Amino acid sequence: MPSWLILREPEVCDEEPKKGVETPEVKVPLLKVSSPVTKKDQLGGSTSPPVKQLQKYGELIVLGYNGALPQGDKGRRRSKFALQRRSCANGVKPVKHHVVKNPAHSELITNSNQHSVSYTLSRSQAIIVQYDHDCDTDMFQIGRSSESPIDFVVMDTVPGDQRNGTHVVNQSTISRFACRIIIDRKPPHIARIFAAGFDSGRNIFLGEKATKWYSDGEIDGLTTNGILIMHPVGGFHPGAKSGIWREVSVGGGIYALRESRSTPQKSSLVESEDNILLDGTLIDLCGATMLWRSSQGLLSAPSRRELDAKIAEINASRPQCPVGLNTLVLPSKNTLSDSEKQPYVYLTCGHVHGQHSWGKGDDTHSRVCPMCRMKGPFTKVQTGQETGYYVDNEPPAYVFAPCAHLASEETVRYWASVPIPHGCHGFRAACPYCATPLTGDLGWLKLIFQDHVD
């Protein structure tokens, strides 16, 4: 019998609720990290005490969004989530399993103060795994539900080329309680992911038709559409390669992919791999994909200020439009994108121009480049605001095709090599900034500027 199924004595820790006192589920809001710099009181001239910084474990970034949701980030629904050390540990761990003949009336299910996972074997029998409070871990839950147990609300991602303002997702494939992440409160703050999240009653239910197995005292299962993860080969660094997509179980096991997301049979266990999140791990919820960046990994990513400085350096060379001879300016977050200085790129050759009508025929989607005479799409260059997608800290001199989002060479090379889950059993490479499927032989190209001539 696995060690986690053996009943242990309850732990006692400073943060654990007092016995006999009914307490609600621990929900600690993710506070913004404030600067520790003191500020003078405008009236008395005194200084206020420094604000204590929260320990940051890492960030979850939803692919397809360029720094914010189209309608703006609001509350728990955002394009990026910071996972920070909670003031009070709320992690849980499995301690014992129970074979129950009448699961609907079991105290383990009805007790709102008890976390449990129920595996229904038949109408008259279920195996319920009891979870107890863990003083050493913090738990974060992700899903489509807006109920309070969910820390991060994630909805289906609509690719950028389909965002016309009227596109509506008729039926979401993301689970209401999709997954949970358990992070050690002590260094090195190991983060582990598990399929399924606890609902408002602190329960997880795997119904009679769900994929599950019970043998040799072990019980585990998979959610309907599955939670997939992929670790980059070689780390999230220059030269990184796409890894192999796997499925994670409710108990944290790693399995080869099923024939399709909802196939009722489990695949083979991958014993050599685990559910520990690494910097650059991708998490797919079947409708949205998230990137995990560890706090250590984010130190090597460019800051927004550093990225703006690299763009300003390119603009300082005063690139010109070969046709209009006007100076072009790569856009930053606060610049207008429809001015005559806005750069456009020919996606077949990479030559950069300003907006002009030269070579424009009847085909509104394609025109001839005046520099090399190659015909192809003429697209507005866009800045990638989300720096967490970068695998290095080099200048953004390349763009994804066909959306023309700016990024560094290693960054475009990496993301063009990553197959992102699409639909029930499909995969395709996509721009991380807008989720538009990549096109062309490479999915990216280098920008070629006309040298400035005085």
From TrEMBL:
It holds the Pfam family Pellino_FHA. This is Pellino. One of its GO terms (biological process) is regulation of Toll signaling pathway. Coiled coil: none annotated. InterPro entries: Pellino_fam (IPR006800), Pellino_FHA (IPR048334), Pellino_RING (IPR048335). Residues 314-454 form the Pellino RING domain. Belongs to the pellino family. Residues 53-309 form the Pellino FHA domain. One of its GO terms (molecular function) is ubiquitin protein ligase activity. Keywords: Phosphoprotein.
